[in-house]
Amino acid sequence: MAEQEYLVVRNDEEQFSIWAQDAPVPAGWQATGFAGSRDRCLAHIDEVWTDMRPRSLRVAMGEA
User: Fold this and answer.
1) What pLDDT score does 37 carry?
2) Domain count, the chain
3) pLDDT tens track for 5-56
4) Could you point out which of 29, 34, 58, 59 has its C-alpha 20 to 30 Å from the C-alpha of 3?
5) What is the distance between the alpha carbons of residues 38 and 56, in angstroms, rounded to a whole number?
6) CATH at residue 37
7) 1 is a domain residue
8) Residue among 51, 39, 50 nearest 8 (CA)
9) Terminal alpha carbon distance of the chain
């Protein structure tokens, strides 16, 4: 049995998640172009999501 493949997705608040590659990406989320196993996708998110605050909060604080 083949391992499930996932996409890394990001929403307008610049928050990341993973989504099954064979399912439609939900409204409000966009694929980032990175795909792979669950572990690979989560490792990628660990590398790129360095500030977990939502974008709107960073903007309100003058940091975005």
Assistant:
1) 97
2) 1
3) 999 999 999 999 999 999 999 999 999 999 999 999 999 999 999 998 989 9
4) 29
5) 28
6) 3.90.820.10
7) no
8) 39
9) 44
